[in-house]
Amino acid sequence: MTAIISAAGVGKTFRQLKRESGLRGALGSLFSRTYNSIRAVDGVSFVIESGEAVGYLGPNGAGKSTTIKMMTGILVPSEGTLRVLGREPHANRMVNAREIGVVFGQRSQLWWDLPVRDSFALNRHIYDIPALRFAENLRLLTDMLDMGAYLDRPVRQLSLGQRMRAEIALSLLHDPRILFLDEPTIGLDVVAKDAVRKFLAEVNRQRGTTIILTTHDLVDIEEICPRLIMVDDGKLLFDGELKRLRATLGSRRRLKLEFATDPGPIALSTATLALDEGAAKYYLLEDETTSLIDVLNEVGRGRSLKDVKLEEPDIEEVIRTFYQNKATRQGAVA
Ligand SMILES: Nc1ncnc2c1ncn2[C@@H]1O[C@H](COP(=O)(O)OP(=O)(O)OP(=O)(O)O)[C@@H](O)[C@H]1O
C-alpha cells in the first residue's frame, strides 16, 4: 500500500472581523478593524493509504469540514504540509479534481431544474470521460443505487434519499481514486442511510476507491470505515481501528447465556455476572482476548444451555466514554 494522503502538522486559523453591537460598534468598525482568530484545525498529522476507508468523527465545530475542505483544495492550510495524491491540493485544484470525488451532504452539486441524467451528462464533458466508460459507469451506478425510476426527473422533485444517491453517483462517474464525503447520511431516513452505507462500503471494497468521510453518525463509521480519526477543538484525539478504541477504553463485550431451566448461580473466572434472571444470565467479558469457547468450556456441559449471544459494546457508548474520559486522550493517539 502507498500513502495517498499525508498531513503533517496541518492547521487552519480563520480570521473573523470583530464587531461591537449597536450604532457605535458599526461606526467604530468603519475606522478600526479588529479580528478574532478561530483555530479550526490545530496541527493534525495522519497518513492515509490507498484503498482505506476512514471516518472523521467529532462534535460540532471540531474542524471536520475544514479538514475535508483543505484536502479537496477548497481551503488553504495556515500551516503544516498536506499532500493528496502527492500534490498540494489547493495549488493543484484542477489536476486534483480529475482524481477525486466530493460529496457535501448539505450542498447539492446537481443542477436543480434539470433531470438527473443531464447533470451526469454535463459532468461527462467537464471531466472528459470517454463515452464507453461513461455509459458503463452510468449503467453500473444506476443499478447499484437503484436510480432507474428517477434518472429523468428534475432534481428538485427528488426526495433527500434519492438526491443523495444521485450526488454520490455524480461524484463517482469519472472513477476518482479518492472519494471525500462530508456528512453523506445527514437527514436521511433509516432505509436511505442503510442503502448509502452499503453502497459506499461496496465501492471501497470492489473498486478500491479510498473513502474519507465526516460524520456525526457512529453507525456510518461502523458500517463503512474500519479506521476512525476522532477530533475535537481542531485537535486529533484518536487515530486507529474502532476495535482498538474499544480495547483502549476497556469497553466490555456482553454475553447472554440462556438455559432451558434455571441452573442456579454460575460464577465464572472468564466473565463477570452482570444480571441473573434465572434461566437467562448476562455476563461481561473483562478481557478482549477471552474467547467464547473459553467461557463455554467453563460453563461446562450438561447445563441445558439453549442459546448463546455475544454482543460487541455499543459504539455510541465507546465514543461517549472517550469524550468523557479526557485523561485517556493523549495516551490514545497513535
Ligand atoms: N469560513 C469560516 N470563517 C470563520 N470561521 C469558520 C469558517 N469555517 C469554519 N469556521 C469555524 O471553524 C470551526 C470548525 O468548523 P468546521 O465546520 O470545520 O467544524 P465541523 O467539525 O465540520 O462542525 P459541524 O459538525 O458542526 O459541521 C468552527 O468553530 C467554525 O465556526
Automatic annotation (TrEMBL):
<dbReference type="Pfam" id="PF00005">
    <property type="entry name" value="ABC_tran"/>
</dbReference>
<protein>
    <submittedName>
        <fullName>ATP-binding cassette domain-containing protein</fullName>
    </submittedName>
</protein>
<keyword id="KW-0067">ATP-binding</keyword>
<keyword id="KW-0813">Transport</keyword>
<dbReference type="InterPro" id="IPR027417">
    <property type="entry name" value="P-loop_NTPase"/>
</dbReference>
<comment type="similarity">
    <text>Belongs to the ABC transporter superfamily.</text>
</comment>
<dbReference type="InterPro" id="IPR017871">
    <property type="entry name" value="ABC_transporter-like_CS"/>
</dbReference>
<dbReference type="InterPro" id="IPR003593">
    <property type="entry name" value="AAA+_ATPase"/>
</dbReference>
<feature type="domain" description="ABC transporter">
    <location>
        <begin position="17"/>
        <end position="258"/>
    </location>
</feature>
<keyword id="KW-0547">Nucleotide-binding</keyword>
<dbReference type="GO" id="GO:0005524">
    <property type="term" value="F:ATP binding"/>
</dbReference>
<dbReference type="InterPro" id="IPR003439">
    <property type="entry name" value="ABC_transporter-like_ATP-bd"/>
</dbReference>
<dbReference type="InterPro" id="IPR050763">
    <property type="entry name" value="ABC_transporter_ATP-binding"/>
</dbReference>
